[in-house]
Design a protein that fits this description.
alpha/beta; Transcription Regulator spoIIAA; 6-stranded mixed sheet; 4 helices; 6 strands; globular
Amino acid sequence: MEIKTETYEINYDESTMTICFEGSLRLSGMDEYTPIVELLRGIAEKTPPHITLNLRELKFLNSSGINVLSKFTIEVRKNKAIAMTVQGAKNVPWQGKSLKNLQRLMPALELEWE
């Protein structure tokens, strides 16, 4: 499963249960995020035992994108059978505060920093 545009790329590797985000997500509003929401929802509906969200190469994410990740985190939290790890990069400014907020939404979420 993948979404690829000129400015960003999202790939899901089913064998490692890892969703990789790369580039810059500056979409305008929730309507433009619909394909991403559907991809994430489809992954959660398969109920993998663990999901890794690799955001290390995601250099920018606007507030609508943060909202999408927050809703996905809440959706995963509701399914007690899924554990989740979020991988971030300390050198990407938006990630510090935003990824810690995801952990507030899902206290069992594991944060890994590079």
